[in-house]
Design goal:
Layout (H helix, E strand, L loop, with lengths): L5 E6 L6 H8 L5 E3 L3 E2 L14 E2 L2 H9 L3 E7 L3 E6 H9 L3 E5 L2 H10 L4 E6 L3 H11 L4 H21 L4 E4 L3 H16 L1
Parallel strand pairs: 1-7, 1-8, 2-7, 3-4, 8-9
Antiparallel strand pairs: 3-6, 5-6
Length: 190
Protein backbone atom coordinates (compact mmCIF):
# COMPACT_ATOMS: atom_id res chain seq x y z
CA UNK A 1 0.00 0.00 0.00
CA UNK A 2 1.47 3.40 -0.95
CA UNK A 3 2.11 5.93 1.79
CA UNK A 4 -0.61 8.47 2.35
CA UNK A 5 0.10 12.11 1.69
CA UNK A 6 1.01 14.27 4.63
CA UNK A 7 1.44 17.90 5.48
CA UNK A 8 4.43 18.27 7.81
CA UNK A 9 4.68 21.65 9.52
CA UNK A 10 8.05 22.62 10.96
CA UNK A 11 8.00 25.69 13.18
CA UNK A 12 10.71 27.14 15.32
CA UNK A 13 12.90 30.17 15.82
CA UNK A 14 14.89 31.73 12.99
CA UNK A 15 18.25 29.99 12.70
CA UNK A 16 17.20 26.73 14.35
CA UNK A 17 17.79 24.74 11.13
CA UNK A 18 14.28 24.06 9.83
CA UNK A 19 15.31 24.28 6.17
CA UNK A 20 18.34 22.02 6.67
CA UNK A 21 16.15 19.50 8.48
CA UNK A 22 13.52 19.61 5.74
CA UNK A 23 16.15 18.90 3.09
CA UNK A 24 17.52 16.00 5.14
CA UNK A 25 14.05 14.51 5.67
CA UNK A 26 13.30 14.78 1.94
CA UNK A 27 16.24 12.48 1.18
CA UNK A 28 14.20 9.72 2.91
CA UNK A 29 10.60 10.37 1.86
CA UNK A 30 8.86 11.21 -1.39
CA UNK A 31 7.87 14.82 -1.11
CA UNK A 32 8.78 18.43 -1.45
CA UNK A 33 9.48 21.59 0.45
CA UNK A 34 6.63 24.05 -0.06
CA UNK A 35 7.67 27.36 -1.58
CA UNK A 36 6.07 30.26 0.26
CA UNK A 37 4.84 33.54 -1.14
CA UNK A 38 6.36 36.70 0.33
CA UNK A 39 6.27 40.45 -0.06
CA UNK A 40 9.87 40.63 1.17
CA UNK A 41 12.36 41.87 -1.42
CA UNK A 42 14.32 39.18 -3.21
CA UNK A 43 18.00 39.01 -2.26
CA UNK A 44 20.69 38.44 -4.90
CA UNK A 45 21.25 34.90 -3.58
CA UNK A 46 17.60 33.89 -3.97
CA UNK A 47 15.76 32.46 -6.95
CA UNK A 48 12.10 33.30 -7.58
CA UNK A 49 10.00 30.14 -7.46
CA UNK A 50 12.73 28.17 -5.71
CA UNK A 51 13.37 30.06 -2.48
CA UNK A 52 10.12 32.06 -2.49
CA UNK A 53 7.49 33.38 -4.83
CA UNK A 54 8.17 37.11 -4.55
CA UNK A 55 5.02 39.20 -5.00
CA UNK A 56 3.88 42.74 -4.27
CA UNK A 57 1.42 43.66 -1.51
CA UNK A 58 -1.51 43.95 -3.92
CA UNK A 59 -0.97 40.45 -5.33
CA UNK A 60 -0.57 39.03 -1.83
CA UNK A 61 -3.80 40.62 -0.58
CA UNK A 62 -5.66 39.33 -3.64
CA UNK A 63 -4.40 35.81 -2.81
CA UNK A 64 -5.66 36.18 0.76
CA UNK A 65 -9.07 37.47 -0.34
CA UNK A 66 -9.53 34.66 -2.87
CA UNK A 67 -8.57 31.96 -0.31
CA UNK A 68 -5.50 30.90 -2.29
CA UNK A 69 -3.35 30.62 0.86
CA UNK A 70 -3.49 27.90 3.53
CA UNK A 71 -2.03 30.34 6.01
CA UNK A 72 -0.54 33.80 6.00
CA UNK A 73 1.09 36.18 8.41
CA UNK A 74 2.86 39.47 8.71
CA UNK A 75 6.29 38.84 10.23
CA UNK A 76 8.10 41.39 12.38
CA UNK A 77 5.53 43.95 11.23
CA UNK A 78 7.32 44.31 7.93
CA UNK A 79 6.66 41.64 5.33
CA UNK A 80 3.91 39.15 4.57
CA UNK A 81 4.38 35.43 4.05
CA UNK A 82 1.93 32.74 3.04
CA UNK A 83 1.57 29.17 1.80
CA UNK A 84 -0.09 28.64 -1.58
CA UNK A 85 -2.99 26.21 -1.15
CA UNK A 86 -3.30 24.50 -4.57
CA UNK A 87 0.19 22.97 -4.90
CA UNK A 88 0.18 21.71 -1.31
CA UNK A 89 -3.21 20.05 -1.65
CA UNK A 90 -2.26 18.49 -5.02
CA UNK A 91 0.94 16.96 -3.63
CA UNK A 92 -0.79 15.57 -0.54
CA UNK A 93 -3.51 14.06 -2.76
CA UNK A 94 -0.74 12.41 -4.81
CA UNK A 95 0.56 10.72 -1.65
CA UNK A 96 3.63 12.88 -1.07
CA UNK A 97 4.92 14.60 2.05
CA UNK A 98 4.78 18.39 1.84
CA UNK A 99 6.96 20.22 4.33
CA UNK A 100 6.10 23.74 5.43
CA UNK A 101 8.57 25.91 7.31
CA UNK A 102 6.30 28.46 8.98
CA UNK A 103 6.15 30.56 12.10
CA UNK A 104 3.80 29.98 15.02
CA UNK A 105 1.19 32.35 13.57
CA UNK A 106 0.95 30.22 10.46
CA UNK A 107 1.02 27.02 12.47
CA UNK A 108 -2.03 28.15 14.44
CA UNK A 109 -3.92 28.66 11.18
CA UNK A 110 -2.83 25.29 9.79
CA UNK A 111 -3.93 23.51 12.96
CA UNK A 112 -7.41 24.97 12.39
CA UNK A 113 -7.65 24.54 8.60
CA UNK A 114 -5.84 21.19 8.27
CA UNK A 115 -6.06 19.47 11.67
CA UNK A 116 -4.64 16.25 10.20
CA UNK A 117 -1.27 17.95 9.60
CA UNK A 118 1.74 16.75 11.57
CA UNK A 119 2.99 19.78 13.50
CA UNK A 120 6.50 19.75 14.97
CA UNK A 121 8.31 22.53 16.79
CA UNK A 122 12.07 22.60 16.23
CA UNK A 123 14.15 23.85 19.13
CA UNK A 124 17.81 24.71 19.56
CA UNK A 125 19.79 22.88 22.27
CA UNK A 126 19.90 26.20 24.15
CA UNK A 127 19.70 29.96 23.57
CA UNK A 128 23.48 30.32 23.29
CA UNK A 129 23.53 27.81 20.44
CA UNK A 130 20.74 29.68 18.65
CA UNK A 131 22.58 32.99 18.99
CA UNK A 132 25.76 31.40 17.60
CA UNK A 133 23.82 30.01 14.61
CA UNK A 134 22.25 33.40 13.87
CA UNK A 135 25.66 35.08 14.00
CA UNK A 136 27.39 32.39 11.93
CA UNK A 137 24.94 32.55 9.06
CA UNK A 138 25.85 36.22 8.61
CA UNK A 139 22.49 37.42 7.28
CA UNK A 140 21.39 39.73 10.08
CA UNK A 141 22.53 42.98 11.64
CA UNK A 142 22.93 43.13 15.43
CA UNK A 143 19.47 44.64 16.01
CA UNK A 144 17.87 41.87 13.93
CA UNK A 145 19.71 39.18 15.91
CA UNK A 146 18.52 40.72 19.19
CA UNK A 147 14.94 40.88 17.85
CA UNK A 148 15.09 37.28 16.60
CA UNK A 149 16.35 36.01 19.97
CA UNK A 150 13.57 37.84 21.82
CA UNK A 151 11.01 36.44 19.37
CA UNK A 152 12.48 32.94 19.82
CA UNK A 153 11.79 33.08 23.56
CA UNK A 154 8.15 34.03 22.88
CA UNK A 155 7.74 31.34 20.20
CA UNK A 156 9.14 28.59 22.42
CA UNK A 157 6.88 29.60 25.30
CA UNK A 158 3.85 29.68 22.99
CA UNK A 159 4.75 26.33 21.44
CA UNK A 160 4.86 24.59 24.80
CA UNK A 161 1.74 26.24 26.20
CA UNK A 162 -0.56 26.25 23.15
CA UNK A 163 -1.02 22.53 22.61
CA UNK A 164 -1.02 22.90 18.81
CA UNK A 165 2.19 20.91 18.25
CA UNK A 166 2.29 17.13 18.01
CA UNK A 167 5.92 17.00 19.07
CA UNK A 168 9.13 18.84 19.82
CA UNK A 169 12.50 18.10 18.20
CA UNK A 170 15.77 19.49 19.52
CA UNK A 171 18.16 20.14 16.64
CA UNK A 172 21.52 19.55 18.32
CA UNK A 173 22.61 17.18 15.54
CA UNK A 174 21.10 17.35 12.04
CA UNK A 175 21.03 13.60 11.36
CA UNK A 176 19.61 12.72 14.78
CA UNK A 177 16.93 15.43 14.56
CA UNK A 178 15.99 14.34 11.01
CA UNK A 179 15.70 10.73 12.23
CA UNK A 180 13.37 11.87 14.99
CA UNK A 181 11.21 13.73 12.45
CA UNK A 182 11.08 10.60 10.30
CA UNK A 183 9.88 8.61 13.33
CA UNK A 184 7.13 11.19 13.87
CA UNK A 185 6.10 10.88 10.19
CA UNK A 186 5.93 7.08 10.38
CA UNK A 187 3.96 7.18 13.65
CA UNK A 188 1.56 9.79 12.23
CA UNK A 189 0.92 7.72 9.11
CA UNK A 190 0.25 4.66 11.31
Amino acid sequence: MPDSGLLLVLSGPSGVGKTSLARQVLTHVEGLFSVSVTTRPQSPQETHGVDYHFVNDETFLTMVESNELLEHAEVFGRHRYGTPRAPVEAEIAAGRVVILDIDVQGAQQIRTTLPQALMLFIEPPDEGDLEARLRTRGRDEEDAITRRLAEARKERLFAHESGIYDGFVVNANLEAAASEILRHINDHRG
